[in-house]
Amino acid sequence: MRSLSPKTWDEIPGCLAQMTEDSKFVGGGTDFIIKLRMGLVKPDALCYLGYVKELKEIREDGEYLSIGAYATMTEIEKDPRVREQYPALIDAASDVGSLQIRNNGTIGGNIGNASPAGDLLPVLYLYDAKIEIMGPDGVRLAGIDEVLAGPGRLTLAYNEAITRILLPPCSYTTSFVKLGSRKKVTISRIGVALGLEMEKDHVKDIRLYIGAVSVKPLHLTKAEDFIRGKVLNELNILDMAQILSNYVKENVAVEFDRDYKVYAAKGAVMDAFLRLKRD
Q1: Domain 174-275 is classified in which CATH homologous superfamily?
Q2: What are the average pLDDT values for consecutive 10-residue runs of the chain, which has 279 residues?
Q3: Per-residue CA distances from 52 to 26, 65, 233 (Å)
Q4: Inter-axis angle of helices 234-251 and 258-275, to 10 degrees?
Q5: Annotated domain spans of the chain
Q6: Are residues 267 and 179 in contact, defined by beta-carbon separation less than 8 angstroms?
């Protein structure tokens, strides 16, 4: 098995040109290495881009905040610009696995896994993230929804790599909450990414994305439409949470812990609103 590991930005295209349909990119390896050792994947080459300094950076890039695909959860969690401007991303990154996982797991890897229960995915939808993608012939941008094809699948070609995640300015107050069963963390997890704009005591605008209840993060527009323009009180939040609970009951299969998620949905929505009140 060949190893490709460019050291500079300019060396990346040459490595990508050597990739085949059987080749794989590797980030922190927190999920991929397990699959490799179990024989679930048998690549002819591994490409690691983590030596390229630009892919580890978190920096301002015009109107965007640029996060390198190889930035770890810990690095994201500790960055003051992320904490100030995108608190829901802090919520999600700080809740990924153990400390050891967060020290190695990368934002690019979280996207690349394309897991329906991916912690960061509903947050990236919430923030309208743009994904920078490099191929042998150059760089292009795509929205996060354009990149995810379904469970474990991306729309990228075999010789394209995620290089940076670009977050536009956000006018919403945001939060993310994840609930899950300790016995079945992977399939029973439910994540709520919430963005809120208020006008006095009324909801001026709202964005709500849910993870782990569909093949990709669910944009729950029905719940948004229900509460938009209404007074933000416990009764209206409960009615909004019930819309999510009803969706889960009607659309999630029993074998994917539907009954747990029907119950957990309400609590997750309530907790997401409570987390907006952080200091």
Answers
A1: CO dehydrogenase flavoprotein, C-terminal domain (3.30.390.50)
A2: 92 95 82 72 86 96 96 96 96 86 89 90 98 95 96 94 97 90 50 96 97 94 97 96 95 88 92 84
A3: 13, 18, 48
A4: 150
A5: 2-167, 174-275
A6: yes
